[in-house]
Amino acid sequence: MNEFFSSTNNKKIKIALMEPFLLFSVLFLPGFISQGVQEIAPDMFESLFFNIFYIITAVPQLLLILYIISIKPERSLADFDIGKISKIDVPRSLLALIGIYLCIIPIGLITMLLEPEIDNQLVYGSGWSFSDYRLLPIVFISCMATGYLEEIFFRAYLFKSLQKTGAGLIPSAIAVNVLFGSGHIYEGYYAFAATAAIGFFLTWLFVKTKSIHTISIGHGLYNFSVLLIAMTGAL
Q: Where is the CAAX prenyl protease 2/Lysostaphin resistance protein A-like domain (predicted)?
């Protein structure tokens, strides 16, 4: 045990992991914990105040991640595949949206077979309520803020940070997406499996495209599409 703590290499690894651990603890852990002990209002996106508050909270959090990445002289945003948006990112994000649904629909079908009493399993996010079309523009911004915040932290920052410590691509992907899915484990095994599946797909797409914008926009579009479906009364 003493040899482990005195090892220069292990010290570097622990120091490298301390930063993402603390950042996760500040940005995401409180939300993960609170979701399990208090009920989430299904109609919260119908509140103008909630959307404004969320945006002005999420944007500084996103900027903090980017600042922490870029403040160290030995690394840059480019090392985490965070760069300028390109023309191809938008059409690819639409394919990402389709891919997300292709990931969760089989899980929903399996869940319906195992537990037929559970309704609306084909669309992850069942239970959301939204009907005020006047708020669609600001809700869209909220969804995009979520997409960028979560993808830049989990898929770019954390995923790449784990690999930089010597962890392989697959172990890093498993660790990141199990953690990502655990944010919805309070909703049950389906929500955990669906979220983790989305995470693995977006991680694969990120590795292939090396574009944070493709997966961030796709993530945001998925969140927005769930609320649009909620407007139809299908959820």
A: 135-224
- Residue 5 identity: F
- Domain holding 160, by residue range, is 2-231
Q: Find out whether 90 and 81 touch, Cβ atoms under 8 Å.
A: no
Burial 145-161 (b: 16+ CB within 10 A, else e): bbbbbbbbbbbbbbbbb
pLDDT at site 2 = 44
Crossing angle for the helix pair 212-231 and 189-209, to the nearest 10 degrees:
140
How many Cβ atoms are within 10 Å of 6's Cβ, its own excluded? Answer: 9
Please give the model's pTM, rounded to 2 decimal places: 0.89
Question: In the numeric block, which tokens belong to residue 187?
Answer: 């909703």
Q: Write down the pLDDT at residue 176.
A: 97
pLDDT along the chain (235 residues), means of 10: 50 79 94 75 89 97 96 92 95 97 88 69 60 93 98 97 92 96 82 93 97 98 92 67
- Cα separation, 106 vs 100, whole angstroms: 11
> 125 by DSSP, 3-state: which?
coil
Res 23: pLDDT: 95
Region label for 120, one of left (φ > 0), alpha (ψ between -120 and 50) or beta (otherwise): left
| Rg, the chain, Cα only | 18
Number of structural domains found in the chain: 1
* Cβ atoms of 104 and 91 closer than 8 Å: no
